[in-house]
Amino acid sequence: MSPVLESEEHKALRAAVSALGKRYGRDYIATINTEGRHPDELWAEAAKLGYLGVNLPEEYDGGGGGIAELSIVLEELGAAGCPLLMMIVSPAICGTVIARFGTDAQRRTWLPALANGTRLMAFGITEPDAGSNSHRITTTARRDETGDWLLTGRKVFISGVDRADAVLIVGRTEDARTGTLKPCLFIVPTDTPGFAYRPIDMELRAAEKQFELTFDDIRLPADALVGDENAGLLQLFAGLNPERIMTAAFAIGMARYALAKAVEYARDRTVWSRPIGAHQAIAHPLAQSHIELELARLMMQKAAHLYDIGDDAAAGESANMAKYAAGEACVKAVDQAVHTLGGNGLTAEFGLASLITAARVSRIAPVSREMILNYVSHQTLGLPKSY
Hints:
The protein is an alpha+beta fold.
């Protein structure tokens, strides 16, 4: 299948998820945010319909699809005003890594539960002193005489830990031959003795909270390690590429929601006897945003296609480009939507003002736009590094 043209199955999936999203909508998200709840009803229904696990293997109760299908689900929920942020983390990152590299026992334990929504997994990579430099991660794991792992470290900006049953932690182990540290991944249940977390006070209004994690020599069984201890970097990027693709889907969905609100308003709002959308100063920026969103979606579809066929190297480049394009288009679309509505764009009634902060997330996380430009300039264009 061409990554540009959607199959009939994808079109049907898009329509079905859109219908689900419209039954909940932005009012649902606004209500749960006000009440301090989580989108449990939507999460459960999406799971029941098979949408949460659409990318996971059929033998573990998943849909047997890929990131292409999962990105459609997140985009359409976002376009309806009710995106599920933890879809980026639980089925996309953690589910993908465990499906590709986990042991049979890890797959049996986690994949069916991730697919049916009864268990949730968070992902921990970011550290306060490492920033975007994953080579400076200081979370370390060492074996003791029993064969167990002892894990020590600190993580920040970890989404949804308060709801998660476990966190997939990126750490480092010491190579016995060279003494150098190499990346590895561990499944850490959130009820592990010594595992602690505290909320980070954020200006962003969202049901999914951000947390700082701390753990000092917490004990994990030998089978907490995911996959091969010597293939940690490959396993890590197997999760990071889907994360970037799904972040693009999140941004595109949010931008589509904002743009649709602005177009509706511009079509109906009449000043001086004609709709404001008849004026090119209003119409052209909205048209430009639509074009930019369509271009970002094409790159996202290309990245998902490359990832799903197993071309990790090409998928990495495209995933970064998709995330960059979607983040830029999202920020611009939300800003233009608010501007189109004027004062109404800042009211709770229209639900756009809260997206101003949310849209910035797609520029910043999970990797900044500047680091993506570094990647493209170094890896794609072959220019020398500045660091």
